[in-house]
Amino acid sequence: MTFMFTPKPEISFTESGEGTPVVLLHGSASNSKQWRSLAEYLNGRFRVICPDLPGYGRSKGGAGNRVMTLEEIVRLLEPVFDRYDDPVHLVGHSFGAAVALKAARMHPGKVRSLTMIEPAVFNLVWAKHGVLSAKTKQFVSAARSSQIALEEGDAWSAMRIFLDFWNGEGSWGRTSFSLRQKLATCAAQIQDDFSALVMDKFTDLDAAGVVCPVLNVTGANSPSEMRMISETLQQSLPFIRHEVVAGAGHMLPMTDPHLTDPMIGEFLEQVDFGWQDAKNEVLIAA
Q: What is the β-pairing status of strands 20-25 and 46-52?
């Protein structure tokens, strides 16, 4: 059975199942419903909590035109974490993975493990090399072009640029008209998400403070920036396992749940039974 809670007016979430709590944080242009497959897979072994991040689903965005920082988003999620006596497993996708990483640093005692799927944690590189780093110039260029289109009132073009960057050229043209309409309504919030990433500064010292076991999952066919982020994570985080899903892209939690759901479920169970990998183990899933 699924219940709806609203610990604060800004955040809503669903909860189902019994066991160790697992909090699933969705990516930009999405909502908590993206986790249906994983929630069903984990049900019966874990208590699954699926929040809507600010500005998505049933959760309100920031007040006025002010952009919320990653730290502020984590603060809004604190009532979710505080509902449980035990530390939670955190699972995040894309922007949600950046929020999850921030939460693991801010509240190490409340986070049992951290799973990041295609983490959009560009701030790891920006903190060292700046936003104009050549290593993330394609993403920054796409984000700025999308922002310009949005400022000109063209939300469709803004979302076309966003979708084609993450899923490959022509992805927008292959989507249905109804999905395009739905995605266009998220364009402004996506720009706020990008701004939150730009404002955040995540240093090596912050990374050293993430003391829980970490699973990092990327798609083999994702943008090259994802590989760069993964390499940075492997060098920075103390206890990390890296898995690459062959043939998958950025949206792998939705496109390849037959691979990612068991992968995540096994990792969570291993952590509950005292798992700890050697640093930087890389596994290939096919």
A: parallel
Closest CA to 106 of 210, 215, 212: 210
**C-alpha–C-alpha distance, residues 238 and 278, integer Å:** 9
Task: Provide CATH 3.40.50.1820 ranges for the chain.
Answer: 3-129+201-285
Give the contacts of 231 (CB within 8 A, at least 6 positions apart). Answer: none
Mean pLDDT for back-to-back runs of 10 residues, the chain (286 residues): 46 92 96 96 95 92 76 94 94 97 95 97 83 84 93 95 92 93 92 92 85 96 90 89 95 95 96 66 43
Greatest alpha-carbon span in the chain: 53
Structure tokens, 276? 């700890």
Q: What is the signed CA dihedral for 152, 156, 160, 166, rounded to 10 degrees? A: 100
Distance of CA 141 to the CA centre of its chain: 21
| C-beta pairs of 204-207 under 8 Å, 24+ apart in sequence | 204/236, 206/105, 207/105, 207/124, 207/236, 207/237
pLDDT in tens, 261-273: 999 999 999 999 8
Closest CA to 24 of 72, 93, 103: 93
Is the CATH code 3.40.50.1820 the one for domain 3-129+201-285?
Answer: yes
Instruction: Determine the Cα–Cα distance for residues 6 and 202; give it in Å rounded to an integer.
Output: 30
3-state DSSP: the chain helix, strand, coil percent, rounded to 5? 50, 20, 30
Closest CA to 39 of 111, 98, 89: 89
pLDDT in tens, 232-271: 899 889 889 999 999 999 999 999 999 999 999 999 999 9
Cα 263 to Cα 253: distance, rounded to the nearest angstrom: 11
Q: Which two tokens stand for residue 210?
A: 């993430």
Q: How many CA atoms lie within 13 A of 128 on its CB side?
A: 16
